[in-house]
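Dock zinc ion; give full complex structure.
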Amino acid sequence: MSKNFKVGIDYGGTKIEGILMDNEGNEILRKRSTYEKNYKSGIQTVSSLVEEFDKHTGTINSVGVGIPGSSSKETGLIKNANSIWLNDKPFKQDLENSLGRDIRLMNDANCFALSESIDGSGRGYDSVWGVIIGSGFGGSFVYKNQVIEGVNQVAGDWGHQPLPYPNEEEQELGLECEVGNCHRPLCAEQFISGVGFTKLFNLKYGTNFRTREIVALEANGDERAKKEFDLYEDRFARLIAIMIGIIDPDVIILGGGMSNIGRIYKNIPKILPKYTFSDKVRNKILRNTHGDSSGVRGAAWLWDSDKF
Ligand SMILES: [Zn+2]
């Protein structure tokens, strides 16, 4: 396989994006394709993107693919994908047959953390905990540029654990998480994801705002929005403190829509000492560098990430 270039694929629910990258992380080509929401169309779309990149370089390139969900180490079948046509399918094997080479497959949140660790905000640090706060809420852990998947392939992914130190108001909400088999009372995703935050706000104030409207309200000094963001940061700090107590990462890098809210980087570090068992909180909370591109970049870095 080519030692000079690598291909990364981000397999999304409606689009499949591909990147051709050189070994220094420079983007050579990027392509995006829509596909029919079925298994066969996905395989064909990934294959034709890869063929196009191979043709461009005149070589057989390494291929890494980021997917929603994960490819079970036990059975080789996909599980927990919200692109449901992938579930229970031997996607890795079918793609390898179609492409005529070994490929590497990884959960897309892990690709985010890997991308940021290698040449993003986590560059130069040993341990990177990537946290995605978008429509959902989850995390992944990278140590020395290697994804730590864990025996259940859920390492670092604590988004569906209960919110720690719940106050009376939080307990009385009686939220029930409907994602997968969660159903946990006080499930953190219900408080921290963009969807959850906005739902709670509207429930509390009898409004019908979208997330970006609440952000705008806060910027204009609205007392309700200010209060809810204060609460949001406190909740997030409680959750981060728990993970610091377990893996104590050098850096915590935020991605997803809610990571664009500037005030959280200033305020959460001020709250963390209240909940963290340490003389001082040295963990850095950083905004991502590559944004939406981390999916494809991290997938491409699934090959040779140990060389950095
Ligand atoms: Zn949940």
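Observed: The pocket of zinc ion is lined by residues 160, 177, 179, 182, 184, 187, 189 (CB under 6 Å).
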